[in-house]
Amino acid sequence: MLERGGRVTPRTPRLVVSVHDASPATASESRQWVSQLDDRGVRTSILVVPGPWRGRTLADDPAFAAWLRSCVEHGHEVCLHGWDHAAPTSEPARRAVVGNLVARGCAEFWSLSEDEAADRARRGLDVLAGLGLATTGFTPPGWLASAQAIRGLRRVGLHYVTTHRAVTDLRTGRRFRAPVLCHRPHSRSERAGAALMTRGPGLFLRAGHMLRIALHPDDLLRPGLREASLRGIDAALEAGVVALTYGDLLDTNPTHVDLADQTTPDGVLVVGQLRRTATDR
User: Fold this and answer.
1) Which of 6-20, 62-76, 158-172 shows the lowest mean pLDDT across its residues?
2) Which pLDDT tens digit goes with each residue over 263-277?
3) What local confidence, expressed as pLDDT, does residue 267 receive?
């Protein structure tokens, strides 16, 4: 069982590390990232794609499902990350442009109605439950979800949803604001983004601030991005952060620690893209 953590007060800097796009197609990459975090005693939120993405579904790979269960036993968290991680083939033009820019074609929940979102989330939850994996958390692919989709997520009983800027408790409406650092491989600003991933924790982890670092399978195809991510995580740990899962965050002193009043100004920070937005969608 991982033990990295500690007593959390209103001034404790927090770090949430998430491993994205976990599926049979990315089993090797997911294992590599979790192994690195295990070596550092960092509990992580593993974002699982249960549907048909890049080949087999999660239900088709009992060995990978067993590995996910072992991760939960060791203190990690499994979260739902959409159904098939693919944007709808037909969506409003403006949303399609934003989805392609921000999420590179994976903005599955960006244009969904409440019923459509609830159906996809329920299918994913059913697959996870059938494999002995329970979750109450959701991160939409590309961190993009319509307001209607979020209502659908609440309807199926999910407890929280994450966006670029925040973690929202769907039961209470309480928002935990936090910037997220992640790479954008093969972009023109990839090198500058890697530098920011390394230095970002020092910029954001001031007293009471929370930072998120997102790890993707394709980051491992670029050795420089892998090393930058690990240096960023190490820098955060050296700065004395408490590493939490998303589930831990919602369960940590929820009645009196208001992160929304103590974090950095609103804004998206996507390393390698350096894009900021003024509002959540």
Assistant:
1) 6-20
2) 333 333 333 332 323
3) 32
Q: Are 74 and 1 contacting, i.e. CB atoms less than 8 angstroms apart?
A: yes
For residue range 4-18, list pLDDT tens digits in order: 555 666 677 889 999
In the numeric block, which tokens belong to residue 248? 């831990």
195 or 218: which leads in pLDDT: 218
Strand pairing category for 45-48 and 14-22: parallel
Identify whether the C-beta of residue 108 lies closer than 8 Å to the C-beta of residue 141.
yes
Burial 174-197 (b: 16+ CB within 10 A, else e): bbbbbbbbbbbbebebbeebbebb
Cα 68 → chain centroid: 16
The string of DSSP codes covering 177-228 is: E--EE---TTSTTHHHHHHHHHHHHHHH--TT-EEEEEE-GGGGGSHHHHHH
Closest of 34, 29, 57 to residue 45, by C-alpha: 34
The closest alpha carbon to 76, from 30, 27, 7, 144, belongs to: 30
pLDDT at 218: 87
Q: How far is CA 227 from the centre of its chain?
A: 19
* DSSP 8-state assignment for residue 107: -
pTM tops 0.90? no
Give the closest residue to 208 by CA, choosing from 256, 279, 160, 269: 256
Show the domains of the chain with their CATH numbers.
14-261 (3.20.20.370)
How far is the C-alpha of 36 from the C-alpha of 42, rounded, in Å? 9
- The whole-number pLDDT of residue 216 equals 92
CA-based radius of gyration for the chain: 17
Decide: residue 7, CB within 10 A, 0-12 exposed, 13-18 middle, 19+ buried.
exposed
